[in-house]
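Priority: medium. Attachment 1 of 2:
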């Protein structure tokens, strides 16, 4: 059996790892492509990190200045004790954009990242050229899902042993075999940082119903999205079903809707070839071919 690894995903890819100052928040990034291309920002989900996009840097770097970065409070970025609600995350994304010397970008967000990207598209429309909402948050509030995310995430940071980190990552996949040792090791190292359990507790505030509801969007909010939008869902997303994804697409004027089969919450990682094709076609303004 071949060994899958993050390094194997990056062999032959011209990429950089580094840090930038996003208005005082030291922010870690993975970057591919050249600065003369359109800027694409890739936004990960709750408790995640830039490695969520390692299988997408090569393909996207051919067309875009592609930057996946650790959100404030996540990964190896700074972890200030702030209110970890959507406006605060959005301010960090806009600060990253500014630090990169741009005031406009293509935004693609998965889960929490899509929630943040939606907020920016609603409240800062001039900053968004095109928008991809990938198994996005911001519309649904299922108590059983919220409790599962909260309990598994806190357990993973309080006792970041190998097998439990694996279980937390398997929550993201339709096929649990897609969770490889490198991905487990990367997240285990991140979750083992001193003080990470305290900041994770802060991050998980959006899994509390009262806080979540005040950050959620209304149909009127989604109707304000002016950027061309792709809502990308999956057949086996553990947080919400495709019907709920279609509801989001229907509220955004002209939005396209695609469902990727045999994928969970991380389609960009589980089926990168299909994701990359759909994603790049949309971001370049090409017709998005149906799946199947």
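Attachment 2 of 2:
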């Amino acid at each position: 059996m071949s060994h899958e690894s993050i390094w194997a995903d990056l062999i032959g890819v011209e990429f950089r790892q580094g840090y930038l100052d996003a208005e005082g928040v030291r922010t870690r990034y993975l970057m591919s492509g050249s600065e003369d291309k359109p800027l694409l920002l890739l936004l990960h989900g709750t408790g995640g990190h830039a490695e969520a996009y390692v299988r997408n840097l090569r393909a996207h770097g051919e067309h875009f200045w592609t930057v996946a970065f650790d959100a404030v409070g996540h990964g190896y970025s700074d972890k200030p004790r702030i209110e970890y609600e959507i406006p605060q995350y959005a301010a960090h994304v806009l600060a990253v954009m500014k630090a990169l010397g741009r005031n406009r970008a293509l935004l693609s967000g998965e889960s929490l990242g899509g929630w943040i990207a939606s907020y920016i598209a609603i409240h800062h429309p001039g900053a968004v050229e095109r928008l991809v909402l990938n198994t996005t948050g911001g519309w649904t509030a299922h108590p059983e899902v919220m409790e599962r995310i909260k309990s598994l995430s806190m357990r993973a940071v309080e006792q970041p042993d190998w097998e439990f980190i694996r279980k937390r990552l398997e929550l993201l996949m339709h096929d649990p075999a897609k969770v490889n040792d490198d991905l487990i090791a990367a997240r285990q190292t991140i979750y083992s940082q001193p003080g990470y359990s305290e900041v994770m507790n802060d991050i998980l505030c959006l899994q509390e119903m009262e806080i979540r509801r005040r950050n959620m969007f209304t149909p009127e909010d989604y109707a304000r999205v002016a950027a061309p939008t792709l809502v990308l869902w999956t057949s086996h997303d553990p947080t919400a079903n495709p019907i709920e994804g279609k509801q989001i697409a229907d509220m955004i004027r002209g939005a396209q809707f695609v469902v990727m089969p045999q994928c969970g919450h991380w389609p960009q990682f589980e089926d990168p070839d299909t994701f990359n094709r759909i994603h790049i076609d949309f971001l370049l303004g090409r017709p998005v071919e149906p799946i199947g």
